[in-house]
Amino acid sequence: MAEFDVDLFVIGGGSGGVRAARIAAGYGARVTIAEEYRMGGTCVIRGCVPKKLFVIGSHFRHELEDAAGYGWTVPSASFDWPTLIANKDKEIARLEAAYTANVEKSGAQIVKSRAVIEDKHTVRLLENDRKITARYILIATGGAPNHGASIPGIEHVISSNEAFHLKKLPKRIVIQGGGYIALEFAGIFAGFGSDVTVIYRGDNILRGFDEDVRTHVRAEMEKQGITILTGCTVSKVDRHGDEFTTHLSNGSSIASEQVMFAIGRHPAVANLGLENAGVAINPNNGGIAVDHFSRSSVDSIYAIGDVTHRFNLTPVAIREGHAFADTVFGKREVKVDHANIPTAVFSQPEVGTVGLTETEARAQFSHVDIYKTSFRPIKATMSGRDTRVLMKLVVDGSTDRVLGCHIVGDAAAEITQAVAIAVKMKATKADFDATIALHPTAAEELVTMRTPTARHVRQAAE
Ligand SMILES: Cc1cc2nc3c(=O)[nH]c(=O)nc-3n(C[C@H](O)[C@H](O)[C@H](O)COP(=O)(O)OP(=O)(O)OC[C@H]3O[C@@H](n4cnc5c(N)ncnc54)[C@H](O)[C@@H]3O)c2cc1C
């Protein structure tokens, strides 16, 4: 009889867990994967995918408005929120089924249950109180929205989870948060016609992004009529029937039909039985502490994706899951390289970024050249839309290597994915310059910026 019931037990059927289960099963491992909610996890069910569908849907407002300058007359367009929700739900159900089928096709077994760790080789399924022993346990439980410090009326506040299932489009919504989820939903609701107010406690939105990006995005969002209030927080939410009054720390208040918080996410480590096996938490970020191979403090237990709170992005969770399966079952050690991960904010306008910000580069390199341009995109010349694109390259002046690329404007995410290859390959500014422009595009600016707009040379210490 085999020593363990299975070779691998995966807790969590999201981006990372599913990839790990499929690849491990492909190596011949006997794999069981537990999912307590819906197969596909956050990205598919209530993250990237439905969010992007909403972004696309809300963007039609701009397209319809812009069409007039090109000769189109569009009879007054109307939008039906329930149709959007129903069609989105249908697409998400299709994806969930595809995820389930792909896991089953790989030979891994799915159990629909919450799983908790009993000891370093045992998990318990809460659905039927069954215990399963495993040579290896992979924790891929993802994360969940934060609601922050408890304030009066917090029970009236929704998170992104609920925003995907609202019965009707709010005429007015207050969104607390300045990160990518808050801004994406601000653009979504504004695009569909809601009056949106963003509340952020810091001095500007998109903390951690390049300063020029932060300024540019804020100005563009404000041009579209989104109100952004910084330096304050929500202190209380009162309910009056279907309406809410949001009280702010600066003494003012706002009436709305919904109040949403998107103030960060925490790793899903609670009530998982980590203490039963002695799995350590990383004190710096609250996620499961892991090494370069995603191994936890317990040698039979690994953790990947958002539960480790390293880079909370789907492709990262997938890469970590794949690397885990290669390392443990594929007989080849694979470390995930977390440098130069491209990332996007699907705000309106969109942000694409890879590599170092100007601030980070200037802290690390003694000579940094900046190439920056802001221009009116060709489409806006005839649509009359008041909008500008931002493109910025951060270059190591000593080696000429491109350290970072930051774009705000249409297709920024698509452009950034391609530029990320060059940045990852350590391309130099001279390589960018040697590339002939593709005309007429916005992205051609990336290969035609000849002269630095700023040069920062740190004087050697005397
Ligand atoms: C609104 C939103 C938008 C996003 N947009 C993007 C984007 O545009 N691009 C991007 O790259 N990333 C985006 N993300 C982040 C992305 O969704 C996550 O980084 C990714 O899903 C992490 O994958 P994971 O496998 O670590 O966890 P998850 O996908 O969260 O999967 C974890 C799964 O584990 C299950 N689970 C938890 N505990 C247990 C248990 N004890 N037993 C059984 N099952 C359990 C959960 O139900 C869940 O299905 C977004 C996230 C949100 C919330």
UniProtKB/TrEMBL annotation:
Cofactor names: FAD
Cofactor comment text: Binds 1 FAD per subunit.
Domain of life of the native organism: Bacteria
SUPFAM superfamilies cross-referenced by the UniProt entry: FAD/NAD(P)-binding domain, FAD/NAD-linked reductases, dimerisation (C-terminal) domain
InterPro entries: FAD/NAD-bd_sf (IPR036188), FAD/NAD-binding_dom (IPR023753), FAD/NAD-linked_Rdtase_dimer_sf (IPR016156), GSHR (IPR006324), GSHR/TRXR-like (IPR046952), Pyr_nuc-diS_OxRdtase (IPR001100), Pyr_nucl-diS_OxRdtase_dimer (IPR004099), Pyr_OxRdtase_I_AS (IPR012999)
Catalytic residues (UniProt): H439 (proton acceptor)
Binding sites annotated in the UniProt record for NAD(+): G177, G178, G179, Y180, I181, A182, L183, E184, G264
Binding site for FAD: K52, D306
Role: Catalyzes the reduction of glutathione disulfide (GSSG) to reduced glutathione (GSH).
Subunit and partners: Homodimer.
PANTHER family registered for this protein in UniProt: GLUTATHIONE REDUCTASE
Protein name: Glutathione reductase
Protein source organism: Bradyrhizobium shewense
